[in-house]
Every structure is written in structure tokens, then in C-alpha cells.
Design brief:
Blueprint lengths: L4 E7 L2 E7 H4 L3 H15 L5 H4 E4 L2 E7 L21 H6 L18
Antiparallel strand pairs: 1-2, 2-4, 3-4
């Protein structure tokens, strides 16, 4: 059995993930359904080609990660956000902007 997901640091704050599609879609029918949807997804956002690619049976994508390495005596705080939009990954900034380049609403909070 192979790992479903692996990752490696690409640069500070950016991880490259590799998702094993054979492990997620074990049947040929499921693989074909994924392949049928892939083109539509890939073309759905102009930033997708900069963030996602398929290599063999792996889906490789970039995502941001803010996992601190410094440890001290203070209590930790976990802030968990969903996967950022492709334009945010390309901008190297979570929630970079919303429609028409406006400031993302999360930063007003």
C-alpha cells in the first residue's frame, strides 16, 4: 500500500503535496470519472496551472502552510483555515483578495 498524501517544503510557507490517485480511486471506473472531471476543474481558474499538475497517477499541488517551528513555554493556539484559493497560493498570501481585487473579508475580522 502506498501513501495517499506526501508533502515537502518548496519554500518558506509553501508546501508541495502529492496525492496518490490510485489510492483514492482504486477502481478503473472511479479513475475514469476523475479524468473526465479533471480538464473542467483545471481550466476553471486561470491560476490552477500555476498550482496544480498531474504527473502519472499523482495530483501535485502547492498550498500554504504556517506551521511554526519555534517552541517555548507559551500555550499554543491553533488557527485552522481551509485550503486557500489558487490565486492566494500564487500570491503567497492567504485570502489575498476577493472578486474584482477587493480586500478579502477575512482581514476585516
Amino acid at each position: 500500500m502506498s501513501l495517499i498524501l506526501t508533502s515537502k517544503a518548496k519554500e518558506i510557507g509553501v508546501e508541495e503535496f502529492s496525492l496518490n490517485l490510485d489510492e483514492i480511486y482504486p477502481s478503473e471506473k472511479e479513475k475514469q470519472q476523475f479524468k473526465a472531471r479533471w480538464k473542467s476543474f483545471y481550466e476553471s481558474d486561470k491560476f490552477n496551472p500555476q498550482v496544480f499538475k498531474r504527473v502519472g497517477n499523482n495530483l501535485i499541488y502547492l498550498s500554504e502552510s504556517w506551521i511554526p517551528t519555534k517552541k517555548d513555554s507559551r500555550k499554543s493556539l491553533l488557527l485552522l483555515f481551509g485550503n486557500p484559493a489558487p490565486h492566494s497560493v500564487v500570491s503567497r498570501m492567504y485570502f489575498a483578495y476577493e472578486g474584482k481585487g477587493k480586500e478579502h473579508r477575512v482581514w476585516r475580522i
